[in-house]
């Protein structure tokens, strides 16, 4: 646990004396969002967490206790249907009276589109200074790493894409033969990449949204929510600065990730993955995709291939056969980090540290 966020979490408990009131019952989807809500709620209460940390959000099945928590909820904070399409239906059935906040849909959230192909063919990687040019948009990573986030936020129409988990299952055979040369495994993964919590600037934005939502539900404690949010936003701003300095020497690293979950983190800190073993929804890769990646790792001199604890690590070993690349581990959901207010800062720090040791 990072010292900064340990101290911040402790400070929340004494920042403002809570007013005795009916504090909203809050449900969150994944541990990073649970952490942000916990920071805003402070001593007033604790949100419920739906997903177990060792599970993949793309295909999670609710437990009976999860259903009960949703039925009792006054508010549900979740990333959005792009990440957990199953939760959209569950909220409609079980928590229809709760305030539902899809954080990725909120104003000023930075959204990026899916990258395509095993080698992100539609992305031209830059010269080691953190710049990547996209066919559909241009993001200067060094500019994204600055504080003028709102000037560069790219708000895509979230309704212009299909449910990406649905594409992992439906119409595979109908599309695959059209994409043999693109190594896309036959899936149309156009649309918004849901892993937006890995940009801490989004977390700063979401802290404000969470604070305002809880204040609307619980006006008596609005001052507490606001003060806690401001304190956490300041801590995250400091963390962004620290990680920009920490990762400055890693911008020329050539790496491949297990699945394309790190676009937001890369964009914020000037890194650039050269491919992914699996698709953004962690759909198992085709044999052709594995062969393509293995050849690319050899030819391009890839430094590192990142595995993830939630998925099949054996696939990484298969991809690495006959190459000299190092195998690292990176976890976008913080499987081994204690759930709570300090979780989010520790998660982002842990992702950064994974790049430091992946040489």
Automatic annotation (TrEMBL):
Pfam families: ZnuA. Residues 148-192 have a biased composition (Basic and acidic residues). GO terms for biological process: zinc ion transport. Keywords: Ion transport, Signal, Transport, Zinc, Zinc transport. Residues 1-21 form the signal peptide. Belongs to the bacterial solute-binding protein 9 family. This is High-affinity zinc uptake system protein ZnuA. It comes from Pacificibacter maritimus.
């Amino acid at each position: 646990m990072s010292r900064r966020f340990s101290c911040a979490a402790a400070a929340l408990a004494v920042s403002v004396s809570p007013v005795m009131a009916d504090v909203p019952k809050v449900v969150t989807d994944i541990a990073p969002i649970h952490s942000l809500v916990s920071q805003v709620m402070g001593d007033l209460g604790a949100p419920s967490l739906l997903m177990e940390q060792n599970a993949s959000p793309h295909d999670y099945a609710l437990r009976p206790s999860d259903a009960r928590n949703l039925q009792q909820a006054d508010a549900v904070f979740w990333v959005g249907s792009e990440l957990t399409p199953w939760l959209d239906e569950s909220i409609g059935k079980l928590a229809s009276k709760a305030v539902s906040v899809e954080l990725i849909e909120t104003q000023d959230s930075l959204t990026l589109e899916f990258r395509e192909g095993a080698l992100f063919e539609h992305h031209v990687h830059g010269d080691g200074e953190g710049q990547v040019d996209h066919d559909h948009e241009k993001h200067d990573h060094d500019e994204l790493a600055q504080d003028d986030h709102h000037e560069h936020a790219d708000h895509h129409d979230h309704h212009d894409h299909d449910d990406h988990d649905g594409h992992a299952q439906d119409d595979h055979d109908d599309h695959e033969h059209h994409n043999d040369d693109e190594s896309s495994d036959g899936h149309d993964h156009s649309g918004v990449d849901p892993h937006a919590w890995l940009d801490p600037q989004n977390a700063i934005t979401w802290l404000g949204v969470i604070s305002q939502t809880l204040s609307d539900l619980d006006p008596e404690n609005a001052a507490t929510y606001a003060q806690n949010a401001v304190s956490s936003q300041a801590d995250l701003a400091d963390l962004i600065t620290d990680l920009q300095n920490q990762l400055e020497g890693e911008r020329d690293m050539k790496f491949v990730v297990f699945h394309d979950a790190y676009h937001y983190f890369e964009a914020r800190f000037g890194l650039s993955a050269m491919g992914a073993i699996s698709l953004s929804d962690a759909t198992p890769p085709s044999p052709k995709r594995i062969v393509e990646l293995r050849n690319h790792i050899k030819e391009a001199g890839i430094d590192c291939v990142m595995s993830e604890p939630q998925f099949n690590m054996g696939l990484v070993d298969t991809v690495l056969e006959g190459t000299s690349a190092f195998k690292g581990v990176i976890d976008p959901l913080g499987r081994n980090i204690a759930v709570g207010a300090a979780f989010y800062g520790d998660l982002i720090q842990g992702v950064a540290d994974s790049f430091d040791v992946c040489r």
